[in-house]
Design a protein that fits this description.
- By secondary structure, this protein is mainly alpha-helical.
């Protein structure tokens, strides 16, 4: 018995079901990369230290005010992002108020006067503290390791 070979030109051609790949939009890739570069890992102990510094009965030194304000703004931005992504406002009515206050105090300019700046830092510190406490309570973020039983001192 002999098998006849078909001519290759008679064979059906396979059609690839997937569209050819397209390169992503360069502007979108650059935007995503910029967001990744600006991202900071969550560190509850770092915010706890800074909040303690600004809420302490002894005000922070004048030369640290701008740096503390910058870090607190970053914490507020990060916490608001966590709150929005986890949709905590659907779980607890307090979240909407705390998110609004965090945004408001974050957007305010740091006053030029040292004592007014300390007051503003304390407002930001309270906003960070209260929003973080709520997010921890609702399990949207974990609490600082130093506050856990057996945590680092």
């Amino acid at each position: 018995m002999t098998l006849d070979r078909r001519d290759a030109t008679d064979a059906p051609h396979w059609q690839h079901p997937v569209a050819p790949a397209r390169l992503p939009d360069r502007a979108k890739v650059e935007t995503a990369l910029a967001a990744l570069r600006a991202w900071h890992v969550y560190n509850g102990d770092a915010w706890l230290d800074d909040v303690a510094d600004v809420l302490d009965t002894v005000p922070p030194p004048e030369d640290l005010v701008d740096e503390l304000a910058q870090r607190l703004r970053g914490y507020l931005m990060q916490l608001v992002s966590y709150a929005l992504n986890s949709e905590v406002e659907k779980q607890d009515g307090r979240a909407t108020r705390l998110i609004a206050r965090a945004r408001e105090v974050r957007e305010e300019e740091l006053p030029g006067d040292y004592f007014k700046s300390v007051v503003h830092l304390r407002r930001m510190g309270w906003a960070v503290n209260e929003l973080h406490d709520l997010l921890t309570e609702l399990e949207a973020v974990k609490g600082p390791d130093s506050l856990k039983e057996g945590g680092t001192p």
